[in-house]
Amino acid sequence: MRVRVAFVERSAGEILLGPPKSKAGRRVVGVPQAVVPVLREHLSIFVKDGPGALIFPGVQGGPLRRGNFNKMSAWPYAAKSIGAEGLHFHDLRHTGNQFAASSGANLRDLMARMGHDSERAAMIYQHESRGADQAITDAIDRHVQAEQDDDEDDDGSSGVLAPVG
Questions:
Q1: Once rounded to an integer, what is the mean pLDDT over residues 90-112?
Q2: Which of 55, 102, 125, 159 could share a disulfide with 97, CB 3.0–4.6 Å?
Q3: Cβ within 8 Å of residue 112, ≥6 positions away
Q4: Confidence of residue 56 (pLDDT cuts 50, 70, 90)
Q5: pLDDT tens digit sequence for 79-93
Q6: Is residue 74 part of a domain?
Q7: Is 4 within 8 Å of 26 (Cβ atoms)?
Q8: How far is the C-alpha of 146 from the C-alpha of 150, rounded, in Å?
Q9: Domain encompassing residue 48
Q10: How far apart are CA 72 and CA 122, in angstroms?
């Protein structure tokens, strides 16, 4: 998916189509294969043909306004029906970015995917993930074991770490 433009809702209720907030907002974002069938179905039902068509249009084809999003999308009902009452639409971006961060991607790659041009903004999603410490520990173990295996192939035990205890 290519992000080229964005709608910005001004405080006076005016909606403008223009470039994203930053240069980093203009980007190509991969869509996970698991989402593609649902996205195709949505596109075939709700999206008009044409390069400027909106993916999530309002009733008359224009952009959804922040003030009527919940009503127009039935978001609170949908969230409650899956046991996630209180979930906000923007929470999905946060969750997706946390998944991306837990993939092992580096900070620059995450910034590019998220459309951030500051490390500070991208760091919000760098939460400690469940099991991350164990994954790090396991990776260190693999490196140490590989070194030990390499040293065993050599003529001595120089550089081998001996177990403590």
A1: 85
A2: 125
A3: 24, 27
A4: confident
A5: 999 999 999 988 888
A6: yes
A7: yes
A8: 6
A9: 33-85
A10: 30
Give me Rg for the CA atoms of the chain: 23
Q: Residue 109 in contact with residue 30, Cβ under 8 Å?
A: no
Distances (CA, A) of 50 to 4, 43, 53, 54: 15, 11, 6, 9
Domain count across the chain: 1
User: Closest Cα to residue 13, out of 66, 59, 82?
Assistant: 66
In a domain, 78, yes or no: yes
Considering the domain boundaries, does residue 160 fall inside one? no
User: Which stretch of 18-22, 24-28, 106-110, 124-128 has the lowest confidence by average pLDDT?
Assistant: 124-128
Helix axes of 89-101 and 107-114: crossing angle, nearest 10 degrees:
150
CA distance 100 to 94: 10
Instruction: Count CA atoms within 13 Å of residue 81 on its CB side.
Output: 5
Between the CA of residue 152 and those of 81, 85, 88, 138, 163, what are the distances in Å?
A: 59, 57, 56, 21, 15
Cα–chain center distance at 69:
21
Residue 44 is assigned to a structural domain of this protein: yes
At residue 162 the predicted structure's pLDDT band, cuts being 50, 70 and 90, is: low
Count of other CB atoms within 10 angstroms of residue 97:
19
